[in-house]
DNA sequence: CTGAAAGCGCTTACAG
DNA sequence: CTGAAAGCGCTTACAG
C-alpha cells in the first residue's frame, strides 16, 4: 500500500503538501502540483478512504435501510425500481450506497445505531414508512440526515418524499365508479404501513362521496406479495355478494389477484374489473394488461437521494422538507368493462 | 460523540482497557469488564467504525459491482433475486454491502480501484461475467478477494459461482425436440456475456446431436430486456421460414417475446412454443405460463456471499474456487404443444 | 506557497 | 490483569 508519506518522500515534499495537491488546494504552485500528481500516477497512489473519513468526519456514503428482512423484499419489483432511482442519483453525486437489511425488527434499531453512531454513513434512506416507527423518532432525535419514502406525522426534522396516496386511491376508485361500478372492493397491504392507510382513505372518500356502500368484508388486508392477492380472491369471490371491481394496493398483488380469479373461473374485466398501483413494467404485459396508478417510483428514489444529499451538503437546509411526486392513472384493459364501448 | 477516552476517564481505566473490554479480550477481570460495559451503556458509546477500520485494515463490507448503469439493471428481476440471496447471507455473517454502479464502462475500473485500493471494502462481488473483462484481470492481479457470478477462463485466483449454462440450454432445447419440434430458434442476450455464449453452445449441441438444422437467422442477439424480445419477434416472425419453437435467454425477454407474438397474431403454444431461463416469480403467472429453467438465482447469490466471506476470513483458502448451482427445467404451458396429448 | 505538529478514534505489541 | 506509547493514513490550523 502506497501512502501519502511515500509520495511525499519520492517527490521531496512534505505529506501536507501532497494532501493539499490531492484536495486541489489553491495555494499550491502548479509546478509542485503537477510533479506530485505525476508521482502519484507512477506509484499508483490511492487515498485510504477510512483514514480520510476519520479526520474529515464524512463518509460520502448513504445507508439504505431495507424494510424488514431482505427475504421478502425483492419479490416486489417496486423496490428494484426505487433502488434504481436512488442509485442513479447517488452515483452521479459521488455517494456510495450501503445496503442494510435487518434480520429482525429489534435488530433493526441496533443496525441503524451502529451505522449512524459509528459514523459509518452520512445519511439514511428509509424505504417504507410504518405508523409510529421507533427508527424514525430515533433518527429525528439525533437530527441525523434522514429521508423517508412515505410520511410521518410527528417528526418535523425528517425529510420525506411521497405520493399523494390518498388522492391516488381516490382517482383509482373514481375511475371504477365512472365505469359504472357500484360494488367496489379493496385489496390492501399491511395496515401498519402509512401507504396502506392513505390509499384506504382515498378509496373510502370516493365511495362516500358517491354514496356507495362501504362493506367491511370487501376490504382485505395482506402483504405486498402475489400470494396475498391470490388468497384474497379465494375469500372475496366466495362471498354471497361479490364486488364487481377491485382496487388493489400493488401490481405484484394484482398479479396474484389475476391468477386467483383465473383459477376460480372469473374473467377480467368481464366479471370483475381491476385497478392497481405502482405500474411496474410487467403490468402492461399481464393478460389482460392491468390498469395501474403510476406513482413515479424511479422519481421517488431519485428525489429521495437528491434531497438527502442536499441536506447533508448544506447544513442549514433552506429547502423544503417534503416533496410530493405526482401520480397518474394508466388505464388498460383490466378496468374497461366491455372493451370498445364504455358502460355509461 | 462519546469516544473510548471518555469511557476510560469515566471508568477510571486506560483507553487500552476499554478497547480490550469491547473486543472481549481474555485477560480482563470480569469486574473491570462489567463496570466498563455498564458505563458504555450509560453514556451511549458506539465504536467509530472508520477508526476501527483504519487500524484493523478490515471493513466488514463487501462491494457489489452492478453491471453497467443501474439504469437498465433492475428491469430484469433476476438481479433483485440475486441481491436478495447475497444480502441474506452477508447480513447473517455480519457484513455490510456497498452497492456501486458505474456511470460508464471506463468509469467502472476507476470505481473499483477507488474501493479496492482505498481499502473501503474487504471483497468484491461481480454480478455478471463478460468475456475478457479488464476488471476481473485487475482484481485477480491484485489477489483481491473476488467472487464472480459466472465464469472466467484465465484467472485462476478468482472465485466463481455459476450454473452449467451449456447443459441448461441443452436441456431446454432437448425438451423442445422431445415435443416434436425440428425448427428451433434462439433469442439470445449480448454476445459479450459468458452466459449468452454458454447457453448458445448448449442450444447448438442439442440441435447438432439430433441432426437438426441450425439456421443463423433463427438466432437473434439482444439485451436482457422485454423490449429486446419484442423486437426479436418482429424480425423472426416475418421470415419466410419461421421456427416452431424458441429458446429464450431470460424470462424478462420471454415476456417481450410473448407480447410480440400476441400482437402479431400468433398463439403460444399453438403456433410457437417457448422455453426460457431464470424462472422468475412472474413466469408462472404469464399467459400462458412460461416454461423456464430454474437456475437457483437466490442460491447463486447466497453462495457467492458465502464463498467470498470464507475466503476473506481464512486467507489460505483451502476451499474450492468454483461452485456450480444445479438447474432444473420447470415445464409449463408455453412449451406443451397441445396441452392434454403430447405430440410424438 | 510549504512544512512541522497535532489530532481524528481506535488497536496492539511491549512492559510490568 | 492493566497502562503508556506508538501508530493506522490522512487533514488542517498555525507559522513562516
From TrEMBL, chains A, B:
It holds the Pfam family Peripla_BP_3. The keyword DNA-binding applies. Residues 2-56 form the HTH lacI-type domain. Keywords: DNA-binding, Transcription, Transcription regulation. The keyword Transcription regulation applies. SUPFAM superfamilies: lambda repressor-like DNA-binding domains, Periplasmic binding protein-like I. GO terms for molecular function: DNA binding. This is LacI family DNA-binding transcriptional regulator.
